[in-house]
Amino acid sequence: MKTIIKKMSYLVLCVLLTSGCTTASPSRLGPDVTPALYSIETPYTISKVRSANRKSGSYIVGSSYEGTLFAVDYDGKVLWENKLSGFMNHDVWTQDITGDGNDEILTANADGHVYCLSDKGKLKWSFKINDAPMYSVTAIKKDNTSYVVAGGFDNNFYYLDTQGKLIKTIASSTYSIEKSRPNKATKDNPQARSQPAKRHSINFLRALKQADGSDVLAVLGVVNSMQGSGAIYLFKPLTDKPFIADPLKAMRSPIGDIRVVDIDDDANQEVLLGSTKMKNQSIALYDPKTKSETVIPLKTISPIFGKFGYRIAQTELVEYQGEKSIFILYGNSLTIIPATMKKAKVKTKTNVVTGKYSYNDMWKDPATNKIILASSQSGGSSIHVLDITKKGWDNQFKNLNPPGKIAAILNNIDKVNQQLTHYQETTYKHKPLPVYLMSDINKTSKKVVKHITNEYDSPIFLDSGNLGTENWDRSAIPNKVYQNKRDRRKKYDLSQAEILEKAKQLYSGDVGAAYWGGHGNDPYYRSLDTHIKTLKVANGKKSVLIFPEVAHYDKDFEIMLEDFMFPLAEAAQKLNGNLFLRNKHTFWQSMVYKKGWSRLISGEFADVFVPAMEETTDKSMELSIAGRVGLWASGSVNNWGARLARDNTSYDRLRQNSHQMLPNHALRQYIYSAANGATYINNFPVDQTHMKTFWDLIGKGALYIPKPNEILSYSPVNIGMLPPDNHYLDEGNNVKTTSLYDQKVEDENPMVFSRLNGSWPGAPVTEWDFSRYAAGVKERRLGFLPQYPNGLVLITPPQKGVFADDKAARGALVDHLHPIYKNIMQEYLTDGREYVSADGKQHFSAKEFYKTIEKSIKEKSALLPITVKGNVAWVVAQTSPTNLRLTLIDGGYINPQTALAEVTFNTISPKKIKDTLSGDEFKITNGKINVQLPTGGFRFLDITLEKRL
Q1: 257 within some domain
Q2: Does 881 lie in the same domain as 814?
Q3: Cβ distance 61 to 105 under 8 Å?
Q4: 1, 109, 191, 229: which has the highest count of C-beta atoms within 10 A?
Q5: Helices of type H across 544-635
Q6: Could you tell me the maximum CA-CA distance found in the chain, to the nearest angstrom?
Q7: Is residue 531 assigned to a domain?
Q8: At what angle do helices 688-699 and 405-421 cross, to 10 degrees?
């Protein structure tokens, strides 16, 4: 009976008409009334979709964000599910490799495995050589014998027989025409890995059918996930060398999609490619016969396609209105163009259909010619089936409101908004900290912002603008490197007078302004003199100078800091200015601890610098949170910040699914950041109506913004960060290079913070990695809402021993924390590679010493008033002598879900526990309560104590 109930609730079929959603089965409605678009609801966020065949017909295979594979038929009936490893599948391929008439399902998993499932969903076999993620898998035939071919980030691809036995290994170093990043051991970096001059990781593997009935293997190799398209290699099956090795130059951007097609009906298949980048994506047809690329930039189809947004151009060859055509999914837009791939015909036959949501994947079922769309990128849970032969498909797509999680999220946030209208601030009133929003406000939200500004003292919206770049005499810069540096995106065409005039306009508002001060490509957008005069134009109003990606480091960079950055900080200190450092990757727990940044670490400019992030290609945000909050809690800085951009969700640039139209992930990220004390928010304008909830939560005081000495959810264990080990620096800041994997290097270098370079998207973290034992994170994927089940383990400047700076302006960590931490803090030191004793004389391997720290973190968590377990992010702050605020947030960043928080009361006896928004009260049983969080939601619990804490 339980199984029946599960299957009934597991998938609900929703037929989506333009007017809404009704529950029905397409087969029961009949062929004439079945809509062109319907949705199959699942309990998962669907990342990938494929079709598969069995003797009784075709069906749909889906792969969830968590890596669960499952199958449904077109009526929505669940056929099977298999959770596999619990890690993501980078690729899914379906093909009958055994000749029994039923397709097997093959997956390339982030844990390094290839998995093969039967059409019943049972695991038939698995294959693994090492821990590097498998990235692509396909099947190919030679002499009527089938082989599985798989490859990924270990820079090889493998031929397997139909039972999973290794037949042959082909190392890319034996044939690659692509140059890997040069990397030689030096005095400064003796651990640098040596690698072949030419090799690549495997982006895609696919089989091309030939007119003579044979197969050819197409290999797309790549060395960088953001720069260049890589190269295409064509092999006859099982041969050692390709007969074609051709660089893909025409698209000039990474390849995120590949389809094999026969455009010209000559029975020889070509390769249809789609690019993935920030904007100006293209599609291209590669013809092996002529070794040529025919490229169509999408912006030539429609201006819509030229707009900013991180998306993949995905294609399918279809028959449309009697003509062979190319169907294109581009984020939230669909279009169909003639298959001739000639630019002249594109503009005249194009109708772009734009919907409300972007989708994670697309597939055409060759048996039914139906288009299958995976879930919306905003955390959706449906599979959408589209029939473009039926009238009205375009309007139905335009009006598609996905059921399931998307509907639940919208409903849950509506409830919060309704509750906020009746919210009464607690009797223990406090003056909230001001929260500054540096947001590009679009036209539709100006009225909303004006209302927020008039109603609340906080949040505070800073005017946002572009002061331009200055044409100035750079000979005064004390080194030639920065004299000659330029940001190629900028014109450097303005005089100082013109910039100051723009500044007067920017500061015409009441509060102040935020604008770019420089960039890592060139910090000197404007001269120091111009910057100081601009700050004076503000006339005491708040100024926030944003510096993205200022993270390069060498002797020339140290000179730049002393010549420009710190003098600018000195001026900002006197003129109500802040420098918002929007740096990348591991900067806040690595590079900032290099000696050039010592004046920031010391606290000399605590009221100026704001540590924030440029979260591009992020795989380890749980580390950055610990690093930024650690600097704030230790007194190095008085403020810290967060940021949302389209690419926050992009942990893998080769698969750029970063076009969330519903920014619920960002809403929860901001709530978590603010609950942890972040007061500077840099927001990209995506659905400001949804983000208004965040503004109202701040304005009404429902979201408590604490000071460091009010937070009670820090672990009593902190990690003191030493000047970073060079190998750790190299790994943590090389996220673009995909060909760095070397098993020998991995074996010889167990790291405290590991698997951070571009070879590990979605991969499991090691047993000894800080992210696992401290943050509760299992994989290298995002981490914006980490669990930290034993309290947030801060990464801070060293507090004790020979590495501590007793003269630093910031003072001691415990002096900034809540009094309960005064005598319970325990520090461990690391350089990112090893742990180090306080006297600097002993070094301990991360692979073994982590056990000591993990034990300490678990044991000392009992000293905290509250701890929380579950897939939730959480913060505890003291709001009055007898009240605590517990903030709980659904931890599924882009895979939101109903979450259960298990709250344990360790050192306190609550008298009353109440949800501040809903009014729900909770009763403690055995020192615990369980709190259910809605999908994409959050809760704020007010905890009244029996006695003062």
Answers
A1: no
A2: yes
A3: yes
A4: 109
A5: 555-560, 566-574, 598-601, 621-634
A6: 84
A7: no
A8: 40
